[in-house]
Amino acid sequence: MVFCFSYKVYASGTSASFLSSRQVETGTREAIGIGQRTGLRVQDEGIMKPAIASGARPSRIVTVALLLLLASPIFAKRKDDVVVMENGDHFTGEIKGLQHGELLFKSDYMTDSVHLDWKRVKQLESKDTYIVTLQNGGRVIGKIAQAGGAAGEEFQVIARARTVRVKAPEVIAIQQREVSFWNQLTGSVNYGLSFSSGNSSTNSSLGASVAYYTAQNSVYLSTTSQFDSQSNATNTNRFTFDSRYGHQITERWLAGGIVALLKSNQQDLDLRASFGGVIGRRLVQTDRTSLLLMGGAVYSHERYFPQAGSAPASNAEALAGLTFSTFRFKTVDINSQTLVFPSLSDPGRVRLASQSNLEIELLRNFFWNFQFYENFDSRPPVVAPRNDLGVTTSVGWKF
User: Is pTM, for the whole model, over 0.85?
Assistant: First the structure.
């Protein structure tokens, strides 16, 4: 008898800066005239701050400020956005965002958001704030509006100090900019469980991730925990934690730092902590595919389970990595990351960390997920297995 259950929860948004560039940030919108296709402008919003008498009590100041903020319309998304398609279809409601070449839009009379082909959108009109991602890797925060543009320049993105004119296909992502920090977070939680009565084996896995994006910076945190038990065998567990920060230097180049923790009974590794800096370059960036190359250096501190003559050790390593993601056939999402760590303090030793995911949409917001991971060490400092690899499957819900 075999019983298997998996459950995965996702939060909408963009992926971490180094893990995947497909979930990119987007920009904001402003009123748009209805006519022939012209330009898209983005303007940064300013918020007026009310003056308060210096003699007011702190409690009153806080109370008044909270009331003003809660009453402010900026906390509520507008429902008067307008989208006009090439065939003349006219929609009024809320623009949710742009991802994988599809514009998400919802009206009050719709039970769920509709997916509109971005290439067939003739005009947009909105007064909310968005993060707009361009094909060249640039990101702009502000309002978007149609305006007349030069020949071949269908959209304009207007920031505080500059105006960017681009063609419509060069706008690859649009994401609502939330006023609240917590609402701007994206993330996922997943859980998997399998049981086999033949050998009384149980496998349980839990994972979570969270990301935060701005026009220039991104932060990504993720963690996983796995537990395996089997009759007449030793129980094993595996724990990982990854933290990445990225800062966009230019449209194609970014720099950042990483922090990674790994505990693996399979490799007799009690804990490995790695800290380092990286520089990355976007080689490919479209609305459906992204490819990022990065390199850097890390410092690792390792502690294996007690053995004769073993002791905690430190290691300086170089880092070379590649992340890839693509969205195909309207239902298939593939992303992969591979990192190689050649040792600088122990020449000849090489570590590899790899993770790949295949995600297939079953129903709206429901997915089947297949994941493969591997951690390899060519020359562990103690007598221990060199490989730690595994496969997990799950059913996910995306929101």
Answer: no
Which residue type sits at 147?
A
Counting every residue written for the chain, the total comes to: 399
Distances (CA, A) of 355 to 6, 13, 42, 341, 372: 19, 20, 37, 15, 6
CB 13 within 8 A of CB 23: yes
> What would the 3-class secondary structure string for the chain be?
CEEEEEEEEECCCCCCCCCCCCCCCCECCCCCCCCCCCEEEEECCCCCCCCCCCCCCHHHHHHHHHHHHHHCHHHCCCCCEEEEECCCCEEEEEEEEEECCEEEEECCCCCCCEEEEHHHEEEEECCCCEEEEECCCCEEEEEEEEECCCCCCCEEEECCCCEEEECHHHEEEEEECCCCHHHHCEEEEEEEEEEECCCCEEEEEEEEEEEEECCCEEEEEEEEEEEEECCCCCCEEEEEEEEEEEEECCCCEEEEEEEEEEEEHHHCEEEEEEEEEEEEEEEEECCCEEEEEEEEEEEEEEEECCCCCCCCEEEEEEEEEEEEEEEECCCEEEEEEEEEEEECCCCCCEEEEEEEEEEEEEECCEEEEEEEEEEEECCCCCCCCCEEEEEEEEEEEEC
Six-digit token pair at 15? 């992926």
In 3D, which of 216, 192, 3, 35 has the Cα closest to residue 122?
35
Query: Per residue in 347-390, pLDDT tens?
Result: 999 999 999 989 888 887 788 888 899 999 999 998 899 999 98
Phi-psi label, residue 345: left if phi above 0, alpha if psi -120 to 50, beta otherwise = alpha
Taking alpha carbons only, the member of 27, 100, 118 closest to residue 287 is: 100
CA angle (179, 181, 184) in 5-degree steps:
80
Say which residues have a Cβ less than 8 Å from residue 327's Cβ, sequence separation at least 6: 22, 100, 288, 289, 333, 334
Tens digit of each residue's pLDDT (9 = 90 or more) over 32-76: 333 344 444 444 443 334 444 444 455 555 454 444 444 444 445
State both tokens at 195: 């049981």
